[in-house]
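Example 3.2
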Amino acid sequence: MHSKEPARSDVPSGSDASLWGASTQFGSIPLASGGARPALPSAFDVCHVGVVLRVVLGVQGVTGLGSLFVASGPADALARWAQASLVSLPASLLWLLLACALRPWVDRQSPWVQWGAAVLLGAMCGGLGQWQANWLFMAVEGGGLTATWAAWTLVGPATAGGTLGAVGLYWLRQRARSELPAHVSARLDELQARIRPHFLFNTLNTAIALVQVDPQRAERVLEDLAELFRQALLSPAARTTLGEEVDLARRYLDIEQLRFGERLTVRWEIDADVQDAQVPALLLQPLVENAVRHGVEPDPKGGWIVVRARRDGGKVEVDIRNSVADVSQSGARPGHGMALRNVRQRLVLMHDVEAVFQAGLQRHAHGPQPPVFIVNLSFPYQPMNRAAGA
């Protein structure tokens, strides 16, 4: 396998082949700002398809159960449920829309203000839902409602809307707190602990060897190592930007570059408009470490890694590719997939049904080209709200 300059079939069209000959330049990445605290999940994080579906189905389920208590039969229950849906469905969608729009402001408020906002929005949306149902009834049936009766018809939906708004916020707060369940958190702790002892030993030995010949470079090695450990100690629920994750992955590969030298070739294709995209902490570093451990390290000839990130409309696409060692020659054993499972679970927990994670070996149908391992991530573009983490 020719690891330094992969065949064109391994490189997507439109790539600059001349970049394959250049390795990463150590020390070119500035230190990440230490004063910013990673953002934690928002309680009003309702701007997701999965959350919208759950809220709408949950409210519809409540109205359906309520219809069963007063219905005289199955047909009457269905008719009452349909009538109630004329109020509950528009009210639910309006509550979600307003909560999503007001999220930046609500996130900065105290919990009591958040509860009040959820209840008031629910009451207002419930009342508006009943008002539009009254208007539709008058338009279809003709006639009108007395002022007293029209006002009284709004009391029940407004009360129910406020109550469901409080229930919805309670569920959202529980969802935010449990975004990393115990078993996923434990796996992340295990993943964070995988800055392996021999990696630390090799890095410190490299820094010691560089002290005499290149003190500045030795200092940068220790700075990169310190940044890796700082990120490894972050809260499992922390969020950061894709740009900061790229910087961390660069630091890790810069250190590995000293060990592998010309055996490791790295290429970056990161679009500027995805730098501020919000992602879970420790998203990329485990993936590039996985590429080094299972793709480059077992191969005596070395290998290559390509990291791409681009924005496609409202989506962020991240693609990580690496060469694969010949098992018959290297004797490499397949990994357990822990890093891949962990990243996939945390990405799904953050973006729900909108997150896509695919990983696997791509073999070429024609020609003798070696296989390539590809990890592809796709998730909604959400710029990082620094105020939430301040």
